[in-house]
Specification:
The chain is of the alpha/beta class and 405 residues long. Strand 4, helix 4 and strand 5 form a beta-alpha-beta unit. Helices cover 38% and strands 15% of the residues. A 7-stranded mixed beta sheet has the order 3-2-1-4-5-10-11, with helices on both faces. It contains 15 helices and 11 strands. The protein has 2 domains: 186 residues, Rossmann fold, CATH 3.40.50.450; 181 residues, Phosphofructokinase domain (Rossmann fold), CATH 3.40.50.460.
């Protein structure tokens, strides 16, 4: 009889800690007598007659544990009408499909195992949730793996940029990843003491527009000028683009392309460059002679080495995959709470009526966020007289008026 095996694949974009999950899963299943097969190119391999497969031994699993990136080539491929390679599962006696990725990866894995079930091929599937955006609604608001490592790398770059701003007496416009939520931008900006941060959650009472974002940056610039501080960094989450209407997006002059999941491919353009150009135009119109430079925090954050927090979390999640599998569970995510306890999370528990998983957003009304806002620099009504030196209508740059709060 053929030896039992498990199949591992990674979907979506990289996140620090993927290799730690893969390594842990491989080691624990190898120790239990399974073959461990890694599938390159995500789901594309399942729909390929000649998939590229990596068979793990202990030494490879041990070697990759703390590395950044992914030992398995990743893909955002989303199957449409392609034919499933069922022989991949039957020929290798696959008993478990382990998927590592976001909610799209999890739902696709469920559909594949459901199709296999209809073909009388019974396998389990367990998903390990991954995103540096930290926007999956995990229990107890626990972080997704990779988030803290990406934030740590962003803070390293952010602190260097802020030091440059102070040294050169310039301003920098920085943008960072975060499709739906501003967790990454908030964490970096708060840690670096940036005077302005713009995340999509701030616009919960008003429509997000390019003008409002630029006005928030100018509000910070002028507030600091009043304080005789002539440098700073404004950090903008790319998620503001996802919250803009199509009409508003067209104003920036960029024709966005879209991925297989219908998301604008923001990685193709520099968001910091767009906002910096718009800011420069406005500063020129206001006759404010201020130098600003764009800094894009993009792919630099995704493949850095995981920090200790994520190495611990990813090890726990990898061991949790084996625990849930041994319990006979399938079609679920593996999650760990702050006490280190493993529990399953089924998609049906977090999906909305439309079948989609609503993103976990930054709680803009939390004490954490409200206290941080006190550390930002922006114009309020008390600054109007002083701001008149630089702005004809200071009210247009009032933080609370811009955000309708």
């Amino acid at each position: 009889m053929k030896k039992k095996s498990i199949l591992l694949l990674c979907g979506g974009g990289p996140a620090p800690g993927i290799n730690a999950v893969v390594s842990t899963v491989a080691k624990i299943f190898l120790n239990d007598g399974y073959r461990v097969l890694g599938l390159h190119e995500g789901f594309k391999g399942i729909f390929n007659e000649n998939p590229s497969i990596k068979e793990f031994d202990f030494f490879h699993a041990d070697r990759i544990f703390s590395r950044g990136g992914s030992t398995l080539i990743m893909s955002r491929f989303k199957p449409n009408k392609e034919n499933l390679n069922t022989a991949l599962f039957t020929d290798n006696n696959v008993k478990l499909l382990v998927s590592i990725g976001g909610d799209d990866t999890a739902s696709t894995a469920n559909r594949i195992t459901g199709y296999l079930q209809n073909e009388n091929i019974s396998i389990s599937n367990i998903h390990v949730p991954k995103t540096i955006d930290n926007d999956l609604p995990l229990p107890d608001r626990n972080p997704t793996f990779g988030f803290h490592s990406a934030k740590d790398e962003g803070v390293r770059i952010g602190n260097t940029t802020y030091e440059d701003a102070r040294t050169s007496q310039n301003w920098f416009v920085m943008s960072t990843m975060g499709r739906s939520a501003g967790h990454l931008a908030f964490g970096i900006a708060a840690s670096c003491h940036f005077p302005m941060m713009v995340i999509p959650e701030m616009f919960n009472k008003t429509e997000v527009t390019f003008d409002k974002v630029v006005n928030l940056i100018i509000s910070s610039i002028v507030k600091r000028k009043i304080k005789n501080i002539h440098y700073g960094v404004a950090l903008i989450s790319e998620g503001v683009f996802h919250n803009m209407s199509n009409t508003e997006l067209k104003k920036c002059g960029i024709n966005f392309t879209y991925d297989d999941h219908g998301h604008p491919e923001l990685g193709n353009v520099s968001k910091a460059h767009i906002f910096n150009l718009l800011l420069q135009e406005r500063l020129k119109a206001l006759e404010l002679d201020i130098k600003t430079r764009p800094i894009e925090l993009g792919y630099e954050l995704r493949c850095c080495r995981p920090i200790g927090f994520d190495l611990t979390l990813c090890t726990l999640l990898g061991l949790g995959v084996k625990k849930l599998f041994d319990q006979g569970l399938s079609g679920c995510m593996v999650t760990a709470n702050s006490r280190g306890e493993i529990t399953p999370l089924f998609l049906s528990d977090i999906q909305g009526k439309d079948g989609k998983i609503p993103p976990r957003l930054v709680d803009i009304n939390s004490e954490l966020v409200q206290l941080y806002f006190q550390n930002l620099h922006y114009i309020d009504r008390h600054d109007y007289p002083a701001a008149k030196q630089y702005l004809d209508v200071p009210e247009d740059y009032d933080f609370e008026k811009i955000l309708a709060i």
